Amino acid sequence: MPFSASFIIEILGTISFTVSGVYSALQKRLDILGVLVIAFVTATGGGTIRDVLIGVTPVTWMRDLTLPCVILITTPATIIFRKKVRDYKITLFLFDAIGLGLFTIIGLQKGLSVSLHPAVCVVLGTVTGCFGSVVRDVLLNQIPTLFRTEIYATPSIAGGILYFVLLPVVDKTVVEVICIIFISGIRIIAFTRKWRFPSFL
Amino acid sequence: MPFSASFIIEILGTISFTVSGVYSALQKRLDILGVLVIAFVTATGGGTIRDVLIGVTPVTWMRDLTLPCVILITTPATIIFRKKVRDYKITLFLFDAIGLGLFTIIGLQKGLSVSLHPAVCVVLGTVTGCFGSVVRDVLLNQIPTLFRTEIYATPSIAGGILYFVLLPVVDKTVVEVICIIFISGIRIIAFTRKWRFPSFL
Amino acid sequence: MPFSASFIIEILGTISFTVSGVYSALQKRLDILGVLVIAFVTATGGGTIRDVLIGVTPVTWMRDLTLPCVILITTPATIIFRKKVRDYKITLFLFDAIGLGLFTIIGLQKGLSVSLHPAVCVVLGTVTGCFGSVVRDVLLNQIPTLFRTEIYATPSIAGGILYFVLLPVVDKTVVEVICIIFISGIRIIAFTRKWRFPSFL
Lengths: 201, 201, 201
What we know:
Three copies of one chain form a homotrimer.
Chain A: H1 3-27, H2 32-54, H3 60-63, H4 66-80, H5 82-85, H6 89-113, H7 118-139, H8 153-166, H9 172-192
Helix pairs in contact in A: 1-2, 1-4, 1-6, 2-4, 2-7, 6-7, 6-8, 6-9, 7-8, 8-9
């Protein structure tokens, strides 16, 4: 994927993840620092877990400060304009969906770069895209919403599998673009149609 | 310990840990993906924490996919047959006890392989055998049962100490077998006699 | 800073962190092992997270057993004398404040030793000084107090910034001493005057 497109999506995705972190934190009445930590963890947690599990350390956000800066600007802006930001719910959801696609592919490729099995790479893509919200929920003392309410990880997993299906037959850049569109697309459809997995018992 | 015996116990232990993860997740009404993540984390969490703390990365389950496959088969099977599986409670408890023994010794030996102090190796053995349930409980938003209801970690710790007591005087393979039997034995006795540690205040 | 002074503060700080862990655990009616794990995690958790994120493994407490021994002695002593220990609340608070200062500077310098950006080093200092309590609270199933009730991380952050402001103009040992006094001092003033950050919504 062209670097500049990837870079812009990464920033938009990070903004969206940060905003969602800020709202979750505000609901629990945290102070400024608490809100900042939760926002940071929501936006960077998935990639951090991935880096720690595969041993790529110091973790990514310590070596490239672009995303930390985005979070540091987005957090106070969201707090101050928290009533106005709500009007952009749909825009933020789109950023989130496209961010999920990009982060999944980034995570998957990091797995490939350390020669892991494709199945493990799919898991790493999903962890990168989805597990920031798990760390956020653990810190906010609630059961991760990822595990029960919405179809969020499934597009990630499906897109990761699609990546390895297409890779032998299509150019790598094209595969990346297709998979990101595919993941964002399923995520948006699943959300608008309120698809859900069954729960048991 | 002969490789094949170790391998079979590892699989039986993993099945038992997975089943316990599935039941815990079902009680919290998670969806399929949530149940799978909890089952996975219950079965692999202890070893993953150990690997991350000692810096053996990518963590073990990423490099050998046997146990992930066992978990991937056991989870849906347990969900589907969840009423029947309950009849095998005692069998599963025995798998769990023997798994605790084996995982403790595996963890302890990983510590030795990176030249850590015996006391740290005993801790690593205990972490490997017992901390999957801690990660599970944290994700399910409950205080880890390891910390309050049952004697679970104590056999692990005692068996780890026994390992270093016997090692200078007995053949290594024999020490391994003795320690696994010892840990499983104490675990079974502690469970059937409902031994408990006191809590305070 | 002279090694011996640093060493003594490290032990006093660890004692204080351990005692605070023991009290938190006792309130949740954990058994002996649970209390020990919580005490251990409170005292070592910040440094452990730092080491894992920057890839310095095996983590520090596995390579130098001084602090684990301090925790292992302090925990049962605190349990046994738990009514008497309360009379030393102010002493323990002073140990805690000075420990916060020292651990912050230790963490910051670990970041420098792997060539990270000063801003990241300030974060690592704060994580080292403050995040043991976050792990403790997550394991005890409560929202981290760090995120909402007291000004705890702020002195750490301010002291970290001061470190890099002074470093070009003052001798390194002097900078260390000034920053530790500065962090402890703000922490003590913030506590006694009950400073708080605002929370929102």
